[in-house]
Amino acid sequence: MAKVHLWASLRRFADGQEVVEVDAATVGQMMDALERAHPGLGPAIKAGLSVAVDGEVIANNRAAPVGPQSEVYLLQRLKGG
Amino acid sequence: MSKIHVSTIVNGDPVEFLANPRETLLDALRNQLDLTGTKEGCGTGDCGACSVVVDGTLVCSCLMLAAEANGKKVETIEGMAGEELHPLQRKFIEHAALQCGYCTPGILVAAKALLERNPDPTDTEVRYWLAGNLCRCTGYDKIIRAVQDAAAEMRGAA
Amino acid sequence: MRYHTPTSFADAAVIAAAATGTLRFLAGGTDVLVQMRAGVVQPDDLIDLKHIPGVDEIEQTPDGGWKIGIAVPGIVLGAHDALVRDWPGVVEGMNLVGSTQVQGRATLAGNLCNGSPAADSVPGLIAAGATVTVTGPNGSREVPVEQVPAGPGRTNLAKGEVVSRITLPPRGKNGGDCYLRFIPRTEMDIAVVGCAVSLRLDGDRIVEARVALGAVAPTVILSDAAAKAIIGTTLDDAALAALTKAAQAEAKPISDKRGTKEFRIEVAGVLARRAAKIAYDRAKGLTK
Amino acid sequence: MARDDVKTGYKLIGTRPNRPDGLDKVTGRARYGADFSLPGMLHAAVVRSPHAHARIVKIDASKALALDGVKAVVTRADLPTGLTGEDLNLQDNTLAGERALYDGHAVAAVAATSALLAQDAARLIEVTYEVLPHVTDVDAAMAPGAPVIREGVADFSVPEGMHGNVARYMEFGHGDVEAGFAAADIVREHTYKTEATHQGYIEPHACVGQMGEDGRGEMWVCTQGHWYIRRMSAAVLGIDAANLRVTPSEIGGGFGGKTTIFMEPLSLALSRKAGGRPVKLVMSRSEVLRATGPTASASMDVKLGMKSDGTITAGQVYFRMQGGAFPGMSPIGEALPCAFACYDIPALKHEAVEVIANRPKAAAYRAPGSPMAAFAVESLVDEMCRELKLDPIAVRLKNGATNGSKSSYGPVYNVIGLKETLEAAKDHLNYTVPLGPNQGRGVASGFWFNHGGETSVTLAVGEDGTATVMIGTPDIGGSRASIGLMVAETLGIPYENVRVNVVETGALGVNEPTHGSRATFASGKAAVEAARHAMTEMCRRAAADWGIDPEAVEWKDGAAHPAGPNAGKFPPMTIGEIGSKMGSTGGPISGHHEVTAEGVGASFGTHVVDVEVDPETGRTTILRYLVVQDAGTAIHPAYVEGQYQGGAAQGIGWALNEEYVYGADGRLQNPIFLDYRVPVASDLPMIDTVIIEVPNPGHPYGVRGVGETGITPPLPAVASAIAGATGARIRSLPCSPPKVLAAIMAARA
Predict the structure, then answer these.
(1) What is the mean pLDDT of residues D4-20?
(2) Model confidence at D25, in pLDDT bands (50, 70, 90)?
(3) What CA–CA distance (Å, rounded) separates C160 from A12?
(4) Which chains would you list as touching B if contact means 3+ CB atom pairs under 8 Å?
(5) What angle do CA C110, C112, C117 make, to 5 degrees?
(6) Contacts of D191 (CB under 8 A, 6+ apart)
(7) Chain D within 8 Å of B35 (Cβ-Cβ)?
(8) Does ipTM come in above 0.95?
């Protein structure tokens, strides 16, 4: 199970958990599983999220692999000037 | 509102057009004469993108009525290069002294006017002469270097 | 908008007197065109004064003073060596207006008649004791420069009147003047505070002085108190302190986007002190 | 053309050839937004609200429409209804609905046969307003009793009980900050403020739009991203994206401000109403300053714990930012992760709220959020270094992030160059020049994530062996040159044989704008892949000609070669030969690559500035300025330096004199360049640069992207240098002379 770290202000949508464990092989599956487990996270996910999987930033790729031992951090979708 | 007949020499060519009395020289150059190399950045004389030379004097064409150009000689960026680029133009390319390039025509026209008065300016003199030409991309560093390099080349050639 | 190109001030005055809508005179145009572009002013009549003979000339009077045409741009003033030698403060004030490009157009008369309390050329003219010739439908009169501005954007000229010439008095011996302004950048700003000092020496002692402060009141202040603070002195530290205090007491600024009231008062004193020192050194012939 | 150094073995990358658009730009031929004209074209003008907040009671355009030559007026009633989310915000900003939300908010637009006539007509459109209470300051907008300027702006993230103007909330962190503060020798806490600034591109927004009654249209526009213009304009007007063809002009600067729409759909709406005649719409400078995206203003609390040896034990920030009258526009989501991105600190807490105010809809501005965050955090780090008499570079080296550090916002830094920038700054001559009276030195580091994003590139091989590259990221700072260098390096052909064109929306797949420092990184990466794609095909053509297996052919130096002795002996087949006969070997040869580019490399820089402050007037002069930044690989070093210098100049402007000044009436008081004071040439010294190259493993040539980080350190570095010169710490930007003088006098008293 991949460990998904939620930033603090997201935790209230996941019963206060800092880390949610999900079964997923890709970033897309991970997002879908998160939303199924905690529908309150839906608006945040729909607003657009980036992730860091095992330290590497995945800006926007649902197909990027997630391993069973992966540490995943959710990040705001980033852009720039 | 009757229009005013304006007869001028632009970059050596005689041109005539009818100006709205409120029309600026900048708008006439761009819209009537299709000389769009002269740019508007502010319309208030604060950015220098519209710099042209009228009867030998560097001015902002946004601060002059088209009607006032009657009987005068106007030089714009389009008249700067002959068969070859002016040394300033060449040095601006070589020194990467432009990024977006929008301020570049005005700066080139202004720098040329400077070097005609003062062929060997200090960096400070270049900076103060060009203080009315805003550039937001370069931080001016490469512009000053390009002007000085062109000045040195022109002095050597003279 | 009607665009007029009279060839005499008498004609200009007649056109101006007959105008019923919004009227503007065009000398350098660096203020009028900005106002037109912004839609702040939409003149019905615009009188271009540059077709009047002599408006682009600088002429020395028999007594050693100077007559300056109303369409002489800053860049021409700055290149006039004899004028700069006599009145460096007047010329440096004008040359601080806007950019090189603006200098190619902007004029003393326009800067004065625009009515801005922050106009850079006006304190120098006032300190110098300059006058302007005002021509109206009924003839001309001579007016001290300090009596022209009435408040921000306004002058004391009557309908149909136009400034037709600027006259600087003879500089005479042992005189010097200077104009300094404070701006946040090095160029391209409107003065937050301005100060001009003109003085004359007898030996090391100041025998005449005029001090004008800009941008610290609705119109430029000609300060007797500040002048008195240095007249009779050698501009020693005590005199400079008195001048600082007098200038600060005279300043009645407002806080606005360009600076706070407190800042303007403080800096009015600083500039008065600095300008007086430069004018003094010029009067002594130590500097240009 | 010799490389600046030879360590990489590249032939072209690292050289400084002339940019392909240089000639057009020095001769006035380059066509920018306002330089396009079409037959039958009309000119438009926009009516804007003079009130910060007002209900629009009535719009009467009858007098305008009665003028000969006035062809169309559009108001909100001409736009479709039913939009939601950001599409609705974009539409609301394009033309006000029931309420005008800021000074300068567009209310109506008019098209006429000349620009002067359109301006006259705009003045004749009578709008009746009912003025409503307003608020413009970030802290005032959250204060109890502040008018709620729009109901229901809070998104899911805002906890119960916050002010009605709060639109978003964020919190994250790690470690035990209380324990960290307890372990510190000194704990210091201050509030820092930055005022809104504008990107200040010299080219005002401009476009020509044409649309018939069938809803099919075209637009020529200055923009950083024409697919964004297409998508947003289509949404605002309720048309299909495919029916709008958008061609980017040359762009006269953007810095993030041209990544979105402001008035572009109005040209199309007016055109449609005027029987399909093209409509040119050009903003004045005051319209740009009043009604296009400045950056957010910010109010920021920072708390840091430091041991006497300089070890930072914990950090905490609470940022409040307003991004105008629309939610989602302030960069809190960027500012927070940037706050401590340069550090490896065991315990951190980040919190931020976004609040709306009666100001224009903010847009991205060069490293959005990072300069403000850096001003707050780096200023406090400097204050504590001075208090503890520690060298600011040594403290940053001690606490700085390095390879393998876990970043403050989650990801682990792979290969980064922060410490290299600090070491180079420490060793630079500028750091050792003795300072005179009233002089001070400031140091700060800065960070930007960099961005990949949606990218499409196509490369076509010509019959003569040249290559045409079609990219979709408008070139602002020389990216056509850098992409041309990478393609030429990859293909092994001369730089001059590659032409890179920025093409319109009808000619290429979707692209994000030139933003996030991504053009040379992402379009460059995709262009290299497109070149490789073409190389594979060219190898296949050669193999077919030689009658050998395609795998037995390799590409080098601009030609297909048999790979190894077993492939057979054939003379190399050049790209020119392959191109000349491609019609008879299977048809035209192209490569293409479409990707959401990943693999960005984080960007770090360190700046050192020396200032002199006039103790009697508070005026600051920049004496010396040094930018040290990691480029990854500098493809075209001259344009890398240009980005560093330009970023520094913008940051200096932000630090010293640029600010939005609002009156008590909520109107912008300085909407012209006379009073919105960007640095002029005489304000600045030469800006020294050092390019650090720690290649990014996520790019074929190691590119990181260099556009944004440079604006970040100047804010705190300048303020710290002023503190060094005067003893007075300015915690509220800009460090304008009245503020500095007041601080000096207060410190003396």
Answers:
(1) 83
(2) very high
(3) 75
(4) C, D
(5) 130
(6) D299, D300, D301, D302, D731
(7) yes
(8) yes
CA distance to partner chain D, nearest, from residue B35 (Å):
8
Angle subtended by helix axes D524-546 and D479-491, to nearest 10: 30
pLDDT bin (cut points 50, 70, 90) of residue D3 is: very low
Angle ∠(D548,D554,D558) on CA atoms, nearest 5:
120
Say which amino acid occupies C20: T
Phi, psi of D94 (to 5 degrees): -65, -45
Question: Cβ of A79 and D515 within 8 Å?
Answer: yes
Which of D257, D515, D598 is the closest to A61 by Cβ? Answer: D598
Q: Does residue C105 surpass a pLDDT of 50?
A: yes
Average pLDDT, chain D: 96
Q: Which residues, in sequence order, are CB contacts of D220 under 8 Å at separation 6+?
A: D33, D36, D207, D208, D247, D249
Window from D5-9, D79-83, D658-662, D716-720 with minimum mean pLDDT: D5-9
Between B2 and A78, name the one with better pLDDT: B2
Q: Is D222 left (phi over 0), alpha (psi -120 to 50) or beta?
A: beta
- Do C61 and C133 meet the contact criterion of CB atoms below 8 Å apart? no
Domains of chain B in start order, with CATH, are: 4-79 (3.10.20.30), 87-157 (1.10.150.120)
pLDDT recorded at residue D749: 84
Q: Helices B104-117 and B87-94: crossing angle, nearest 10°?
A: 130
Strand, helix or coil for residue C9 = helix
In contact, B114 and B129? CB cutoff 8 Å = yes
In the predicted model, is pLDDT for residue A76 greater than 90? no
Look at residue D566 in the predicted model and tell me its pLDDT: 81
Neighbours of D65 (CB within 10 A): 16
What is the amino acid identity at position B73? K
For chains B and C, CB pairs below 8 A equal 89
Q: Give the model's confidence band at A79: pLDDT under 50 very low, under 70 low, under 90 confident, else very high.
A: low
Domains within chain C, CATH numbers bracketed: 175-283 (3.30.390.50)
Closest Cα in chain D, distance from residue C119 (Å): 14
Chain D residues within 8 A of A39 when measuring between CB atoms? none
Could you give the CA distance from residue D550 to residue D552 in angstroms, rounded to a whole number? 5
φ and ψ of C269, to 5 deg: -65, -40
Helix (H, G, I), strand (E, B) or coil at D323: coil
Choosing among 2.40.50.140, 3.40.470.10, 3.40.50.460, 3.10.20.30, the CATH entry for A2-76 is: 3.10.20.30
Whether residue D539 is predicted with pLDDT greater than 60 in this model: the reply is yes
pLDDT over 70, % of chain D: 99
- Return the residue of B nearest to D202 by Cα: B41
Structure tokens at D162: 């916050």
Rounded to a whole number, what is the distance in angstroms from the first to the last CA of chain A? Answer: 37
Report pLDDT digits (tens) over B94-109: 999 999 999 999 999 9
Is there an interface between C and A (3+ Cβ pairs < 8 A)? no
d(CA D142, CA D356): 9
What's the maximum distance between 2 C-alpha atoms anywhere in chain D? 90
Mean pLDDT throughout C247-252?
A: 98
Structure tokens given for B60: 């902002």
Domains and CATH numbers, chain D: 416-446+602-748 (3.30.365.10), 452-597 (3.30.365.10)
Q: Domain map of chain A by residue range?
A: 2-76
Helix (H, G, I), strand (E, B) or coil at D442: strand
Q: Which DSSP category does D662 fall into?
A: B
Residue for token digits 């900076």? B127
Residues of C within 8 A of D618 (CB-CB) are 263
- Class of residue D19 by CB neighbours under 10 A (exposed 0-12, middle 13-18, buried 19+): buried
C-alpha–C-alpha distance, residues D266 and D227, integer Å:
17
Dihedral angle, C-alpha D152, D154, D158, D161, nearest 10 °:
-40
